[in-house]
Structure formats: structure tokens, C-alpha cells
């Protein structure tokens, strides 16, 4: 079971990337546009991923289905190397 | 910061230009090419008919009218107009000589074209008349030939209405041979009448003459061209017989009132034959002349068509120049023109060099001077956009023009707009289609710029970068939602494990083995309770995203307040607003994330419902049934109290402070100063008369009215607090639309392709071919175009209403520089 700390690690990585973006963006007429756009992209993509990840971290409901054929189990356990 | 101006609008300066009168035209033309100066009207009190260059503008208007007249004629003759070759060779400011020549030339041409057209019209009319006459001669002649055989019958029918026509046939047949109509005192009227009026004509004649007539008509096979309306009209030849001169003239009047053309026809067959011959030869003559005139006119128009587009450009530019010159002041003593206008401060050097260049080229000793003025007037808002940022700025400008130098919401919108769209449109496949469409438009940008784009395509083309980013982010959110054309992908190890054995039809439950690394676990796809999971996930996601978006926008109000140096806006508006938003919706977002992150099953606790938690927080803050965390009641009470306290804080602090500040100023006697009219006078020092050249009232401050301020603040407070609630709810559209999109694409799949895959044999092959076409066409039309448009409108609304209301002041005036490019792009009236 993951503890959710991954969200924080990635957060630190993203923050690092944002800082790097601030300094790396080429100087010139469009620097602000570059900075704002890249950092916003990073942050929004991170938020989207992190919220999705968190929502599945400690699930309260489990997927159920009744349309799976028993044969599915064989291929499925082979594929994941389970017994 | 150089020339960058997108986060805030460019700094503007009010400049005054002194231009020697001789080069006024050239300087303005050069500035028009440059397009970065917005002239102010220095003659606002002079009406447009009394301005200096009215005469020139009138003349150019006339030339423009002539050109439009040529254009209309060219269009009528369906000659192709040669397009202006770029704007390259016509951009040079035309010499005033050239304009004079052009005006003369167009005058001449107009006269000539008019003459040609007039004679053409006259000739066609003649031609029509002759054609009609020929028809009358032939048809009426044929009738006479027939009628001469039966004049008695005719007379009988005229004398006695009751006489049966056919009965007398045999008796009277032989004695009628050579009897002339004149002998019987019967006259006739012959002519041509439009076919649709024939029946009316007949009826009127019958009624007004009480049946004392004999009417004969024949249809003319070919329609005849009407010289007035240039339309082909179907016509009939008619011959009316009646006796008595009075009756005949009555018939003539009736016929003429019904647009009939009357022609004289002789009774004698020999004369008629001569007439026909004569008419035939004149028709041939007229036809030849008409065709020569037509060719001449065509050649003339073709020659004009070669050049008309560039003439139009020259005239439009020239007119714009004089219109600008009309805004200038004229300094009598110094023989120079004075102009005032707004210019981006960075562009002043360019303006200066342009002015110097023009003056030098003209070889003038008097230099043109650029003066910067200090002013309290509000400068116009001007963003330096490029082809990428332009479309995003258009989104914002469609809502309102930002205040001078306030934070431009267009900058974050570059990302947040397509991203909010993508949250609603998340599907890797649909996103890819949109991305490719955007990419194609970006790659073939130059080619597409040149072709004629219809209205809808032009809209898409203008927003090509928006479409590109919307597509790209939709692909990302599609990956997160694990949706590609409603199917899922298993890229990472799944976090759920099905039981190892079960019987067909059993309801089986998967066990958690971990967390899927990126996006939604594919196991959820097709699960019976997929919708329950997705509902909860997407609803919470949109609340948190909405809160973050609003908070981010709210911070721009802090940036604005700091920039305008208004501490009271920070303390009286931003801080209470921030606390209010955070203490309710920030807390909501926090408990959402907390509930996700906490291992309820592992810790053997009951997970409390968030909706009830939030409702109870307001109904009974200190009383929590299912605890999320220890100390929750205390925290919630504190937050509710904080939020409640923020309301009077926001309501009262700013107006009371402003009143106190105003009173303090009044007491210390500053009021008189600010009430004084501050007038700027710029004197002409050299001239002895020392007439004020520019005199303007700079008094723009308003008196302090506590009532106004208070009402404004009450509205702001109520609006802010209520909006925090309604706007958060409004972000739920992200949830609704993304669910709808996913469901719709699932339905489309199962209605089309999935059915084909269930068929067997040859039918399956054919049906998968056909149903794929249906599925793909509907995917593009419904899921990408229609759903995409709707998601885009929702994203637009989220920006205009939910985000921009948190900081946007938007009472700016747009910068509209004097630029030929803009003048030429204006649609022709």
C-alpha cells in the first residue's frame, strides 16, 4: 500500500521544475508569456494527476462486475505472473 | 523590461508633435504606416463640416464613389478584379500630384463609362422596339391575311353580339374577299403587351367597350429583353378592332396604361412587306452598333479592373490621412501643425526617427518636434500581442477592456482556458483529433492566410492556437481519465485484482493491491459501479480545481492593489475576501483531499459524508457526529466565526477609512487645492501675441461622496460573498460536462461499432466498414465539434464570470492607433 507520499515527492519535483523554468526561459519580449504558460501548465497538470492519484489511494468502494467470463481469470493471472 | 507588454498593458505617453505644414501630409502618412500613434481630437468643438481639410475629403469621397461605381459596373460585367499585389508597391505615401492625376483620371473615366452606358442603353431600347415592331408586323400581318377572308363575319360579330359566328360561315364566305376594313369603318390598334397583363387588358377592354371589339393576340415565342430593367419579359402581340375614332383612342389609352407599346401597322400587305424588310435591315444595323459599344465598354472596364484595387487603397489611405489632419491644430505664427496623441512610451524613438526622416527627405530646414507631455488623463490600454497571444487576448477583450496597467487576465488564460476546457473534454482520442486540426492550421498558416476563408472557418483559424492547446490538454486529461474514444488503456500495473475463479454470471468484486500510477485505474472501466466512482471523483475534482482557479484569480487583485499602491484595497478587500474564501471553500477542498488521503478501512473508522459535514458546519458548527480528524469541532467553529467576521470587515473598513482620510485632508486644508482647477497652458513664447496654443482642463478628480462609496462597497461585499458560494457551485459544470462527454462517447461506441463487432461472417465485415464510417463521422460532428463548442463556451464563462470577477476592473479604453492597416481592413460600406 502506498502512503501517498508520492504526491509530495512529485510536488517537490514540480516545484523544482517551476523554479528552473523561471530561470531557463529565454529573455526577450515573450519571457513573461513563456514563464506564466509553462509554470501554469506544470501546476495544473500536477494538480490533475495528484487529485486523481489521491482519490484512488484509499478507495472506499471496490469495482464490481458481473459480465466477466471465467476464462478472463486465466489470461489475467498469466499476464501478471500470478498463480 | 523592454518591449514586453502582456502582463500589463504598455506604458503610454501623451506626445505633442510640431510638424511643418509643408510635410504634414507626408508625416501623417508615414505615421499611418507605422501605426503606433493614436491622435487626439484637438478640434472637438469644431463640427466636422468646418474643419480644415473638408474640401480634400469631399474630393476623395467623390473619387471613392467613382471607384465604387466602376466596381459595380465591373461586377455586373463579371470581369475579374486584379487583387492588390500584397500592399507592397502601394504602401509608399502617394504624392499629392498622383492623387490629383488619379482624381482627373477617374473623372474622365466616369464620363466615358457613363457615355458608353447611355448609348448602350439607348441602342438596346431601339433594338427592342424594332424587334417588337417586327413581331407586330409579322403577327398582325398574318392575322390580316386571315381576316380579309372573313370581314363580314367580323362585322356581324361586331354588329350583333348574339349572332352565332359559325352559322354565317358558309353564306358569307365568298363575298368577303377583297373588302377593306376602312370600307366597313373599322379601325384597329396593334401593339405588344407583357403576357401577364394580357388578361387584365382583355377584361378592361371588354367591360369599357361593352364588348364592341374584336381582339386578336398571338404569343411571341422568345421573351423580349426590357431595356429599363434588363430583364427578359414574355410578351404578346395584340390587334384590337373596333369602330369609331373615340373608341380607338380609348383603346390606345387603356393599352398604354398597361405598359403596352403601340406600333403603326399598315393594312396594305405590300406596304407591310416593305416595312418588314426595312425593320429587318435596321435591326441588323443596330445589333452591330450595340455589339461594338459593348466591346468598347468591356475593354474600358477591363482596363479599370487592372488597377482599381490599388487606386482604392491609395484613396482610402489618402482619406485617412486627411481625416487625421483634421484632428490637428494649426499654429498660425509658426506655420506648423500641432498634433497630440497617445503612443506607447517605448515607441517614442521610432516616432522621432520617422519624423526626422520625412522632414529630411522633403529637404526642410524646420525640424519636426516630438514633445512628451505630462498629464492626468487616463491613457488607453494597449497590449503588445503576437499571433499566439492575440487570440487569447481577444477572449478577454470580448468581455471588457482592462484598466490601464492592470493585470491582464489574458496571460493566465493562455493555459487556464484550454485546461478548463480539457477537464470537460477529457478524451485522448477526441483531444488528438482536435490537436491535429489545430496543428494543421498552425503549420499551413501562411497558405491559409492567403485563401478566402468563410465566416466559420475564419473563426476557427483565428483561434488555431487555442484549438491546438485545447487539443493538447484534452489529450492529457484523456490520459488521466483513461479514456480513448470511450475505451481504456492499461499502461501501468493495475491496482485491482479480480478473484482467481468464478462462475459465469457471478457478481465479483476486485481487491485493492495498490494505486494506479497515472490516472484512473482501467479496472474501473466497464465495472458495474464505474459511474458511482467517477461521479464522486469528478465532482470533487471540479470543486478543488474551481477553488484553486478562483484563489489564483483572487491573488491578481492583490497584485493590482500593490501596483496601484492602494493599501486600503489590500486590507479592506483582499484580506477579508481571501479569508472568507479560504475558510469555507478552502476548508471544503481540504477535507476532500484529507478524506482521500486518510486510510479509513485500514484504521477501521467510518468515513463521514462530506456534504453533511459542510452543511452541519453552518447549522451546528460545534457538533460533529462522525469525526474526520481530532479537534474538528474547534477548527470548524473558528473558521465559521472567521468567515462571519470577514463580512463586516469587508463591508465597513474601506468606506470608513476613505471617509476618515477625506476628513483629515479637508481639515488640513488640502481640499481647496484639489478643488482648484488645474489648467495646463502651453504658451507660444516666441510670438508676441502669446496665444495659448493648447489649453485644456486637466481637472478630473471627483468629490468624495461617502454615500456612493458605501453603496459601492455594500454591493461589492454582497456580491463577493454570494459569488463565492454560487461560483464554487458553478465549477460543478466541469463535473457535469466531463461525465456527459464520457457517457456520450460510450453510447456512440455501443450503438455503432460495437454492434458491428458482434456480427459474424461477411455481414460483420461489411457492417464494420459501414458502421465505422458512421461512428467516425458522428465522433467528429457530435463529440468533437458540438461537444467541443459547448465545453469551450462553458470554459469561456468560467473565465469571464467565475475567475475575472475576482480581480478584473476592466474600465479601460482600448488603444486604437492611426494605422493604414486598420483602415484598409475595414469592410467597405
TrEMBL record, chain A:
InterPro entries (UniProt xref): ATPase_V0-cplx_e1/e2_su
Family classification: Belongs to the V-ATPase e1/e2 subunit family.
Organism: Myxozyma melibiosi
Keyword Transport: yes
Record's keyword terms, sorted: Hydrogen ion transport, Ion transport, Membrane, Transmembrane, Transmembrane helix, Transport
Membrane topology: Multi-pass membrane protein
Name of the molecule in the record: ATP synthase subunit H-domain-containing protein
Transmembrane segments: 7-25, 37-55
Pfam families for this protein: ATP_synt_H
Keyword Iron set for record: no
Taxonomic superkingdom: Eukaryota
Compartments it resides in: Endomembrane system
UniProtKB/TrEMBL annotation, chain B:
KW Lipid biosynthesis (keyword) present: no
Bilayer topology term: Multi-pass membrane protein
Coiled coil (residue ranges): 60-126
Compartments it resides in: Membrane
A Pfam family recorded for this sequence: V_ATPase_I
InterPro entries per record: V-ATPase_116kDa_su, V-type_ATPase_116kDa_su_euka
Source superkingdom: Eukaryota
Transmembrane parts of this sequence: 419-444, 465-484, 541-561, 573-598, 637-657, 732-751, 763-786
PANTHER family listed in its UniProt record: V-TYPE PROTON ATPASE SUBUNIT A, VACUOLAR PROTON ATPASES
Family: Belongs to the V-ATPase 116 kDa subunit family.
Function: Essential component of the vacuolar proton pump (V-ATPase), a multimeric enzyme that catalyzes the translocation of protons across the membranes. Required for assembly and activity of the V-ATPase.
Name of this chain's protein: V-type proton ATPase subunit a
Amino acid at each position: 500500500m502506498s502512503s501517498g507520499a508520492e504526491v509530495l515527492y512529485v510536488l517537490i519535483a514540480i516545484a523544482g521544475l517551476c523554479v528552473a523554468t523561471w530561470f531557463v526561459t529565454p529573455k526577450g519580449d515573450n519571457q513573461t508569456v513563456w514563464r506564466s504558460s509553462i509554470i501554469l501548465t506544470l501546476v495544473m497538470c500536477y494538480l490533475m494527476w495528484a487529485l486523481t492519484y489521491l482519490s484512488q489511494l484509499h478507495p472506499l468502494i471496490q469495482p464490481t462486475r458481473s459480465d466477466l467470463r471465467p476464462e478472463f481469470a486465466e489470461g489475467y493471472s498469466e499476464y501478471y505472473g500470478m498463480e | 523590461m523592454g518591449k514586453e507588454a502582456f502582463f500589463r498593458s504598455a506604458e503610454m505617453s501623451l506626445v505633442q508633435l510640431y510638424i511643418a505644414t509643408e510635410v504634414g501630409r507626408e508625416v501623417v502618412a508615414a505615421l499611418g504606416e507605422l501605426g503606433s500613434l493614436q491622435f487626439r481630437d484637438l478640434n472637438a468643438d469644431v463640427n466636422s463640416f468646418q474643419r480644415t481639410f473638408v474640401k480634400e475629403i469631399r474630393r476623395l469621397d467623390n473619387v471613392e464613389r467613382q471607384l465604387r461605381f466602376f466596381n459595380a459596373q465591373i461586377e455586373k460585367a463579371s470581369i475579374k478584379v486584379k487583387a492588390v499585389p500584397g500592399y507592397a508597391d502601394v504602401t509608399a505615401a502617394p504624392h499629392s500630384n498622383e492623387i490629383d492625376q488619379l482624381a482627373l483620371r477617374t473623372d474622365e473615366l466616369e464620363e466615358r463609362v457613363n457615355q458608353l452606358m447611355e448609348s448602350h442603353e439607348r441602342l438596346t431600347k431601339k433594338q427592342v422596339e424594332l424587334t417588337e415592331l417586327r413581331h407586330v408586323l409579322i403577327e398582325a400581318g398574318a392575322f390580316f391575311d386571315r381576316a380579309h377572308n372573313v370581314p363580314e363575319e367580323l362585322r356581324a360579330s361586331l354588329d350583333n353580339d348574339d349572332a352565332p359566328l359559325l352559322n354565317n360561315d358558309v353564306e358569307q364566305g365568298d363575298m368577303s374577299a377583297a373588302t377593306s376594313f376602312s370600307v366597313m369603318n373599322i379601325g384597329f390598334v396593334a401593339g405588344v403587351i407583357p403576357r401577364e397583363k394580357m388578361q387584365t387588358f382583355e377584361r378592361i377592354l371588354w367591360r369599357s367597350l361593352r364588348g364592341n371589339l374584336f381582339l386578336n393576340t398571338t404569343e411571341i415565342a422568345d421573351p423580349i429583353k426590357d431595356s429599363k430593367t434588363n430583364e427578359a419579359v414574355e410578351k404578346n402581340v395584340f390587334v384590337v378592332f373596333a369602330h369609331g375614332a373615340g373608341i380607338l383612342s380609348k383603346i390606345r389609352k387603356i393599352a398604354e396604361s398597361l405598359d403596352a407599346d403601340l406600333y403603326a401597322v399598315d393594312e396594305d400587305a405590300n406596304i407591310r412587306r416593305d416595312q418588314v424588310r426595312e425593320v429587318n435591315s435596321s435591326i441588323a444595323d443596330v445589333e452591330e452598333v450595340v455589339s461594338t459599344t459593348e466591346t468598347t465598354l468591356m475593354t474600358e472596364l477591363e482596363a479599370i479592373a487592372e488597377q482599381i484595387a490599388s487606386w482604392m487603397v491609395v484613396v482610402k489611405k489618402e482619406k485617412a490621412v486627411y481625416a487625421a489632419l483634421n484632428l490637428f491644430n494649426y499654429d498660425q505664427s509658426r506655420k506648423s501643425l500641432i498634433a497630440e496623441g497617445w503612443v506607447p512610451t517605448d515607441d517614442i524613438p521610432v516616432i522621432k526617427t520617422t519624423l526626422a526622416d520625412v522632414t529630411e527627405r522633403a529637404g526642410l530646414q524646420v525640424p519636426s518636434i516630438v514633445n512628451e507631455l505630462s498629464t492626468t488623463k487616463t491613457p488607453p490600454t494597449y497590449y503588445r500581442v503576437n499571433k499566439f497571444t492575440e487570440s487569447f487576448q481577444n477572449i478577454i477583450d470580448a468581455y471588457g477592456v482592462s484598466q490601464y496597467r492592470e493585470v491582464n487576465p489574458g496571460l493566465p488564460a493562455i493555459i487556464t482556458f484550454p485546461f478548463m476546457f480539457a477537464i470537460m473534454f477529457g478524451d485522448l482520442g477526441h483531444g488528438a483529433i482536435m490537436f491535429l486540426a489545430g496543428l494543421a492550421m498552425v503549420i499551413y498558416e501562411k497558405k491559409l492566410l492567403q485563401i478566402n476563408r468563410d465566416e466559420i472557418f475564419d473563426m476557427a483559424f483565428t483561434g488555431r492556437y487555442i484549438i491546438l492547446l485545447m487539443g493538447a490538454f484534452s489529450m492529457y486529461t484523456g490520459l488521466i481519465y483513461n479514456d480513448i474514444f470511450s475505451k481504456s488503456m492499461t499502461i501501468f500495473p493495475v491496482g485491482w485484482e479480480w478473484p482467481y475463479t468464478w462462475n459465469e454470471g457471478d457478481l465479483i468484486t476486485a481487491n485493492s493491491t495498490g494505486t494506479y500510477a497515472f490516472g484512473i485505474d482501467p479496472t474501473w472501466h466497464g465495472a458495474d459501479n464505474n459511474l458511482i466512482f467517477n461521479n464522486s471523483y469528478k465532482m470533487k475534482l471540479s470543486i478543488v480545481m474551481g477553488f484553486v482557479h478562483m484563489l489564483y484569480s483572487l491573488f491578481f487583485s492583490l497584485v493590482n492593489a500593490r501596483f496601484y499602491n492602494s493599501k486600503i484595497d489590500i486590507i479592506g478587500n483582499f484580506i477579508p475576501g481571501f479569508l472568507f474564501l479560504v475558510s469555507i471553500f478552502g476548508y471544503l477542498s481540504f477535507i476532500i483531499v484529507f478524506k482521500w488521503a486518510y486510510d479509513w478501512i485500514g484504521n477501521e473508522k467510518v468515513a463521514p459524508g462530506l456534504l453533511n459535514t459542510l452543511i452541519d458546519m453552518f447549522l451546528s458548527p460545534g457538533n460533529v457526529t462522525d469525526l474526520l480528524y481530532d479537534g474538528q469541532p474547534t477548527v470548524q467553529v473558528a473558521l465559521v466565526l472567521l468567515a462571519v467576521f470577514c463580512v463586516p470587515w469587508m463591508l465597513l473598513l474601506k468606506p470608513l477609512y476613505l471617509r476618515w482620510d477625506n476628513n483629515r485632508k479637508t481639515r488640513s486644508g488640502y481640499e481647496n487645492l484639489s478643488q482648484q482647477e488645474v489648467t495646463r497652458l502651453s504658451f507660444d513664447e516666441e510670438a508676441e501675441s502669446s496665444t495659448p496654443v493648447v489649453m485644456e482642463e486637466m481637472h478630473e478628480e471627483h468629490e468624495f461622496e461617502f454615500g456612493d462609496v458605501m453603496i459601492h462597497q455594500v454591493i461589492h461585499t454582497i456580491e463577493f460573498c454570494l459569488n463565492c458560494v454560487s461560483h464554487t457551485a458553478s465549477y460543478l459544470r466541469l463535473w457535469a460536462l466531463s461525465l456527459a462527454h464520457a457517457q456520450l462517447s460510450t453510447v456512440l461506441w455501443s450503438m455503432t461499432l460495437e454492434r458491428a463487432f458482434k456480427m459474424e461472417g461477411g455481414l460483420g465485415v461489411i457492417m464494420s466498414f459501414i458502421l465505422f464510417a458512421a461512428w467516425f463521422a458522428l465522433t467528429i460532428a457530435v463529440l468533437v465539434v458540438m461537444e467541443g463548442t459547448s465545453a469551450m463556451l462553458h470554459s469561456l464563462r468560467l473565465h469571464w464570470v467565475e475567475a475575472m470577477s475576482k480581480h478584473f476592473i476592466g474600465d479601460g479604453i482600448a488603444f486604437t492607433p492611426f494605422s493604414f492597416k486598420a483602415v484598409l481592413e475595414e469592410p467597405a460600406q
